[in-house]
Specification:
Elements (H helix, E strand, L loop, with lengths): L22 E7 L6 H14 L4 E4 L2 E2 L3 E3 L2 E3 L1 H9 L7 H7 L2 E2 L6 H8 L5 H15 L4 E9 L3 E3 L2 E2 H7 L3 E7 L4 H14 L4 E7 L14 H9 L3 E5 L3 H4 L15 H8 L2
Parallel strand pairs: 1-7, 1-10, 2-7, 3-6, 10-11, 11-12
Antiparallel strand pairs: 4-5, 8-9
Length: 266
């Protein structure tokens, strides 16, 4: 059985610290499979095209498949490539994704199943190191696993990790019927934990049904009832759904212009 560790407090985010707060965004979802990686990668690319230095991070990735004798974090690699990373730089990828898990389960559950001890200090130190290397004005874009209440490691959920990292939230939500309830619940959970919300991005994944009568109304309803801005709406991209998107040939900047502007103000 893995060693159960007591939750620790971050050394770099102490309340008494007088240094500038790092620029950090935590990308979460209203559910698993809503396209967090796609949105995070598109946002990273948009920020880079606007002249910003962006560093990606996927602290915990489960469901990794074995490649050449090692667990391969596909989502982390997509973020790494969107940020201009070298696909052959294993050391850089290890910094982007400190913990890789095989089971397609919540990270805390997968780690316990596999006998892996997740140390939050390792995650916090990795985040600090990434931004220290990139420079003081860099923006760290962190992708969580699933939604805010997904168990991250013993005693912590994804919302706790976002808070420990000192990051604002970007919520990725489906654009289709049912998204109003899912998104409002996520906003409520975030506010209950005093998390700052940068905004919401709607994503046409899975592809909405042509007869979905809610599509013209969901964005305005979420903004009115949720009190948070919808910063973008991404179309369904077939190559992204197949995991084969070529970011050098894909530009979604116009769909995420407001999101890029909001994140640049962090």
């Amino acid at each position: 059985m893995p060693v159960k560790e007591k939750p620790t407090t971050p050394t770099s985010q102490d309340a008494g610290s007088h240094r500038r707060q790092p620029r950090r965004l935590f990308v979460t979802g209203t559910d698993t499979g809503v396209g967090k990686t796609f949105v995070a990668a598109a946002l990273i690319l948009g920020l880079r095209r606007s002249g910003h230095t962006v560093v990606p991070m996927k602290p915990l990735e489960s469901g990794c498949r074995m490649v050449d004798g090692q667990l391969f974090p596909e989502d982390a690699m997509r973020l790494h490539l969107a940020a201009g990373g070298d696909p052959n730089d294993d050391d850089a990828l290890a910094k982007v994704c400190p913990y890789r898990l095989a089971a397609p389960l919540a990270p805390a559950v997968a780690a316990e199943k596999e006998g892996i001890r997740i140390d939050e200090r390792t995650i916090l130190e990795a985040a600090d190191a990434l931004q220290r290397e990139a420079g003081p004005d860099s923006i760290l874009v962190i992708e969580g696993a699933g939604g805010l209440l997904v168990p991250a490691y013993p005693g912590r959920c994804m919302a706790d990790l976002a808070r420990l990292l000192g990051a604002r939230l970007l919520i990725v939500a489906r654009s289709s019927l049912g998204t109003v309830n899912h998104t409002l619940l996520t906003l409520e959970a975030a506010r209950h934990r005093d998390l700052e919300i940068a905004g919401i991005v709607l994503n046409d994944y899975p592809r909405p049904a042509a007869e979905d009568a809610s599509l013209p109304y969901n964005e305005a309803t979420i903004e009115t009832l949720g009190g948070a801005p919808v910063l973008g709406h991404l179309p369904y991209v077939e190559s992204a759904a197949n995991g084969e998107i070529d970011w050098t040939k894909t530009a979604l900047d116009s769909c995420l212009a407001a999101a890029v502007e909001a994140v640049a103000r962090l």
